[in-house]
Each structure stands twice: as structure tokens, then as C-alpha cells.
């Protein structure tokens, strides 16, 4: 037989001895309508720290603004429309001039894009535009000459 109640499961027996006060517990200040509010001691500023030094003046003739962090950067790689312009313009040589019209249009669009964004491929776009225009003009002149010869009734026999 035991001398007191037995501890239940997941319960600890009461501690013997006086309870120690918590050193980190907040202090209870007396409160009342006739008492002034408590006064706290202000911490002194840390030693050795002063205000930050002022910014240096820029050199004579130098202006800020060489770097704009909000401006878009140059897109990486070569412009795809410039590559497509050159490929389709050269394809117009093989396929009777029809793809050269597409190459001419893609070349003009790619010229504008590379000029405005600074992306690589300006030379490819220019070459695609020139080759596309020459092949398209040559194909048109060939077609006009063919129709003229057929309309005139010319025969080799």
C-alpha cells in the first residue's frame, strides 16, 4: 500500500521542495491611477559608431547615368527571323522564286528587330533581304519574259 495517490499514466509526481522563481519573468509594477508610469533606463549608444560619411562628389565632367538597371538587355543569340530570311531567300533560288518573297518579308522584319533590340543577326537579315529581293525581281522578270514570248507566238520550229 502506498501513502498517497498514485501518478496516472503520462503524469509526473509532484516535486518536493520550494519552487524557484523564474529569473526571466517580467516584473510586475504597481499600477494605480495616482502612480506615474514606470521609467525605463535608456541604453547608451554603442561605442565607436558615428554617422556614415557623405558620398564623394563625382569627377569634373562625369555624369551619372552610364548604367540603367531598368533598361532591357541585349537578347542572347542570333535573331531567328534573320536566319529564316537567309534560308528562305536561298531556297527561292531552288524553288522558282516563291520562297524568296517570304525571305524578303522576314528579312525586313528581322532588320527592324535587330536594329531596335541590338540582337545579333543584322548582317544575316540584310543578306536575306538582298538575296530575297534579287531572286524575287529575277523571277518576276523571267515570268514577264515567258508570258511575252508565249503571247508573241515565237516558235523555234
Automatic annotation (TrEMBL):
The keyword Transmembrane applies. Residues 33-51 have a biased composition (Pro residues). Residues 1-11 have a biased composition (Basic and acidic residues). The keyword Secreted does not apply. InterPro entries: DUF4190. Residues 82-139 form the DUF4190 domain. Keywords: Membrane, Transmembrane, Transmembrane helix. The chain crosses the membrane at residues 83-111, 123-151. Residues 1-51 are annotated as: Disordered. It holds the Pfam family DUF4190. This is Membrane protein. The lineage of its organism: Bacteria, Bacillati, Actinomycetota, Actinomycetes, Mycobacteriales.
Amino acid at each position: 500500500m502506498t501513502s498517497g495517490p498514485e501518478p496516472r499514466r503520462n503524469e509526473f509526481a509532484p516535486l518536493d521542495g520550494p519552487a524557484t522563481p523564474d529569473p526571466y519573468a517580467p516584473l510586475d509594477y504597481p499600477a494605480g491611477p495616482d502612480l506615474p508610469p514606470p521609467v525605463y533606463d535608456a541604453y547608451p549608444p554603442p561605442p565607436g559608431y558615428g554617422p556614415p560619411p557623405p558620398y564623394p562628389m563625382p569627377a569634373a565632367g562625369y555624369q551619372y547615368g552610364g548604367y540603367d538597371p531598368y533598361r532591357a538587355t541585349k537578347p542572347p543569340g542570333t535573331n531567328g527571323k534573320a536566319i529564316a530570311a537567309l534560308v528562305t531567300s536561298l531556297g527561292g533560288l531552288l524553288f522558282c522564286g516563291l520562297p524568296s518573297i517570304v525571305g524578303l518579308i522576314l528579312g525586313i522584319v528581322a532588320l527592324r528587330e535587330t536594329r531596335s533590340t541590338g540582337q545579333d543577326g543584322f548582317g544575316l537579315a540584310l543578306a536575306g533581304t538582298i538575296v530575297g529581293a534579287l531572286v524575287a525581281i529575277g523571277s518576276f522578270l523571267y515570268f514577264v519574259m515567258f508570258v511575252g514570248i508565249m503571247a508573241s507566238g515565237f516558235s523555234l520550229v
